Amino acid sequence: ESNDSFIPPRILNAKNLRTFFVYPYPNPRPNLDIKLLHHLTCLRTVNLARVAIETLPNEVGSLIHLRYLDLSKTKLVELPESVCNLRNLQTLKLTSCKNLRRLPEGLRKLVNLRHLELLYTAALECLPKGIEELRCLQTLSMFVMSEEGCQLRELSNLNNLCGSLTITNIRGGGSKESKNLKSKEHIRKLQLDFVKEDYEGKKDDDGSAIELFEPHPNLEVLVVWYYGGSKFPNLMEFQSSSIMLCRLQITECRNLEILPPWANLESLQCLLLTGLDSMSPMGLFNGLEASSTTVAYPNLKELAIEDMKHWEEWVMETSSEDINVMPLLRDLYIYDCPILKSVPHQILSQSLRKLFIKDCPKLAISCLPPLLEELISDGDADIKLLHHLTCLRTVDLSYVAIETLPNEVGSLIHLRYLDLSKTKLVELPESVCNLRNLQTLKLTSCKNLRRLPEGLRKLVNLRHLELNYTDALECLPKGIEELRCLQTLSKFVMSEEGCQLRELSNLNNLRGSLAIAKIRGGGSKESINLKSKEHICTLALEFVKEDYEGKRDDDGSAIELFEPHPNLEELVVWYYGGSKFPNWMEFQSSSIMLRRLQISECRNLEILPPLESLQYLYLEGLDSMSPMGLFNGLEASSTTVAYPNLKKLIIMDMKHWEEWVMEISSKNITVMPRLRDLHIYDCPILKLVPHQILSQSVRKLFIKDCPELAISCLPPLLEELILDGDAGSLSRSVPFNDNTSLKVMYIQNSPHSTLPQGLSQLKALQTLKIVDCNSLTCISEELQHLTSLRELYITRCPILGPRCEKDVGKDWSIMSRIPSIYIS
């Protein structure tokens, strides 16, 4: 339906409807009038996930047969008490309701409830009392400890709980019997989140805060956040013969000095340690007795060490060299250890297959594991060491500041994946061409890269060659046509010295995006045969910029060669020198899939071809085109629709546009009936926009640096307005037209000393953001009348910011009633 807040009558008439699902793709749906649902009394399933509702109407309580209610990712702050009338409800999903603060007090009445999903509801203050009465409950993903709400002892009666349980806001209290987590044999994952501020004060050295949470031996995953003790209690030692624990994550327990003797746990396969400021590396091996038969972490396969700011020398301080350390370790991750210098050779063992190092600038590894298959590093690694690792399948050196790649890389004959993105490489050695098994070569954003090796044709198994943002690349080597397996070739550089354009014709497996750069023409249509490449979805054509400043290509010969397959979805054209496009760009609507079109800095272009299928249109720097060039070929009649499917229009850098009017005789022409986003940037003399374009459908309007633009009436259903720089009349005054839809407004880089007049009429406004407004001297008193305003952001406003400081700023009294105020 055209009106997104309208539930069609044919649905409301379906009295026996059992399932109501609002499909959210591609964006969260706007507010639906869900009050109407109470007529559908036979409903069993209602899914409103991602619908932008802020309140749930009381009428929902009349859906007495409802079994399943999904409200995930909505903007709800609370649920009405009427929800507790849904006695047959079995599943209630509230995942990622980030504004949710409380649940209804009568939740205990939902005696058939089996699944209550509450993950990622950080604002939830407590659970209502009486949760213990929900004896059928199997899923309770989060339990919030609170003195005001449900007490921890209520968990003891929920004997059917299974799967994952997260307990948050832990500060201790109660007796061991009052929890009885040890009897919950079906809980497989337990997460304990302590109050973060607590560890910054008194230590919990006796472990009383965590003593309460002893789990059943069937527990498989344990996660602990912000625990304040220097050690864990005895119950956390876990006898290896009786425990099934396979994964442990200890995060930001800043006072923790040693781990329990987990090195002896035979079941442990994954250990993740983050932000343990008080623990030395030897804290990993507490309780380990040195002998020739000792095995530390005998079955550990994955170890992650992160944010260990004080770790410097990681050595094995044990008397016996015969101790076997992590003999099955396959994956080692070391992040953000700024002074760490070494890793014990016992850990860099024969078994290691994957090594990931990030933000460890002082770490030196002199000998890499011989069977390593995957290396990912962002440091200044001595990559000459790599040639010893003949089993390597994956090497990721993206972001490493290397300027040359050693010839030795050619000895990694089993390599399948090589990522050199964002390095400082100027060229690749010819030895790279020995990597006959290489399938992926990534060189994205290698801004210094000038050339590829001449023997690139030898990489016959290469499937993906990524070259985006390699502006210095002069050409591709000859013979690229021999890479018949190639599926991704993100950039093709035309050059007389290198690979010729005709070589593209043999690459029949190309798919995804293809950019062809440095176009000057040449060749015949048959020599390229882009029309046969049915899997190319995005085509970018970049002509030589200097060419359009000389002779014009009015016959379109330079672009005629690049006719794509009808499956093409996106076309981007830069610096084309012609005054019009060739006939193939007229795209018959019945045969073309083109959805997105971007035309940039084609300074001679005068008109666009008719484009009925477009959903996105971006026009930039078209000096020779008037506004009516948008509507070439449009015949006025009562049934004419211009751009019938267009949803987003961006007009940028049109220096000569002054009067944008519809010079069409028929008033019955419909213009862009589905347009939702309109962006107009850098049009210095533009005075107006046709009222046909500022239509009922527009939801977002973005105006930047258009000082002469006058808009007398906002689109009636506008929801978001962004004013950047001097946005003309809107920067000075918001036109009065009783707008009841505008919810979000941004004011950025305003040259004015005051906010626009007329803000008080924006009765639905919920969020106002004021950014980088150096000249603004005060807040508008009109904000006092915006009763729906919930969020005010003031960022980098040197005069206005101090005036809005809480309690002391001169303008604080105007804005003090706004619930959320952010000033930076």
From TrEMBL:
InterPro entries, sorted: Leu-rich_rpt, Leu-rich_rpt_typical-subtyp, LRR_dom_sf, LRR_R13L1-DRL21, LRR_R13L4/SHOC2-like
UniProtKB keywords: Leucine-rich repeat, Repeat
Source species of the chain: Kingdonia uniflora
Boundaries of every R13L1/DRL21-like LRR repeat region domain copy: 152-274
Protein name in the entry: Disease resistance protein
PANTHER family for the chain: EF-HAND DOMAIN-CONTAINING PROTEIN (PTHR47186:SF30), LEUCINE-RICH REPEAT-CONTAINING PROTEIN 57 (PTHR47186)
Keyword Repeat on entry: yes
A Pfam family this chain is assigned to: LRR_1
Domain Disease resistance R13L4/SHOC-2-like LRR: start-end pairs: 384-680
Signal peptide, first to last residue: none
